[in-house]
């Protein structure tokens, strides 16, 4: 799933521009309508200043309104791959993921003179959407540690996918090369939706073929026009309608007339959104400032005894450390209490897992320790922002994160 390119806040007051008159949009709708696509709301494509291309409603929506119904045959699923000759491009002993295969399928179909999917493919961006994994190695090294690690992991997964596909192709005339595969991979990774793999498996035999994982990803034309919001309330699933399998999107909340209709990709923080989809959302309720365990030792000058160290490691309290508007994460609070609390060490487990922390620790020690960690992150960000080699998308994100840290400092001070 995915959209790219959240625009800067200074453009928020510009009006959305209609896109339905564009040739690619017209051809996509014609292609889908003649193949059973149902759009009961007559949704409109718009270019929104803050989110880019998206979907608007011409009338007010109420909970339970069906937004679109897409026939299963109009989705690119593992069934699509099995019914075509596509899988014959690969050696029989190949072991490829559903993401590998969908990415390669897009590239192959784009290279054909005639393709059933041509109108859908022409509606896709001609270049891969921006994500941090596509930055040069030297630019990735400029990023904060959590974003840097996530971008490197994303890049590694892309390279491993390409390596599997490249080694498995058995036809020399195949149009897939690294550049085109990156396009397909990023589009699938940012736009694919979840489909129930049990349903897909019933429709095609996956037991003795090259698929290495579950056939749980699919591309759904028009659905990928919707943008993400962490506040969106929709439901999308495969259902049987009048004897035919369809993918139906239903709203679970209200939307005012002419407003953009959003879907949710899941409860993702901004690091996840930026790395996977290429955008972030100011005010994201899932966002936080991640704290590395090494930073806790470095910033706070920790010198743990053997018991404290083993307790933290055995209870995995050195993982999932963060500070958010909701407060200090369970593990970070426990980590700091083990290191700085004055309670008898024999009663650590009882205090931590019953959330029975001493008042002095909560109101004094915890506040001061968290402030020091946040101020460390603030200084590190300011150093990074002084670098002229940063990508504009990254600058926007870091400026947002700087404001978030300052806000968290204020909230911690008020506790």
Structural notes for this entry:
- α6 (145-168) runs parallel beside α9, α12 (330-340) crosses α14 and α14 packs antiparallel against α15 (392-414).
- The protein has 2 domains: 9-267, set domain protein methyltransferase, domain 1, CATH 3.90.1410; 289-414, no CATH class.
- The chain has helices spanning 23-33, 78-83, 98-110, 118-122, 137-140, 145-168, 178-191, 197-203, 270-277, 293-300, 306-314, 330-340, 348-353, 359-385, 392-414, and strands at residues 17-18, 44-48, 52-56, 66-71, 193-194, 217-218, 227-228, 234-241, 244-251, 262-263, 289-290, 322-324, 327-328.
- The chain is α+β, with helices and mostly antiparallel strands and 415 residues long.
- The chain has a 3-stranded antiparallel β-sheet with strand order 1-2-3, with no helix packed on it.
- β12 and β13 form a beta hairpin.
Output the radius of gyration.
24 Å
Strand content: 5-15%
Silhouette: globular
Question: The biggest beta sheet, please?
Answer: 3 strands, antiparallel
Point out poorly predicted stretches: 1-13
Mean pLDDT: 90
Strands, helices and their partners?
Layout: E1 17-18, H1 23-33, E2 44-48, E3 52-56, E4 66-71, H2 78-83, H3 98-110, H4 118-122, H5 137-140, H6 145-168, H7 178-191, E5 193-194, H8 197-203, E6 217-218, E7 227-228, E8 234-241, E9 244-251, E10 262-263, H9 270-277, E11 289-290, H10 293-300, H11 306-314, E12 322-324, E13 327-328, H12 330-340, H13 348-353, H14 359-385, H15 392-414
Parallel strand pairs: 7-10
Antiparallel strand pairs: 1-2, 2-3, 4-9, 5-6, 8-9, 11-12, 12-13
Helix pairs in contact: 3-6, 3-7, 6-9, 10-14, 12-14, 14-15
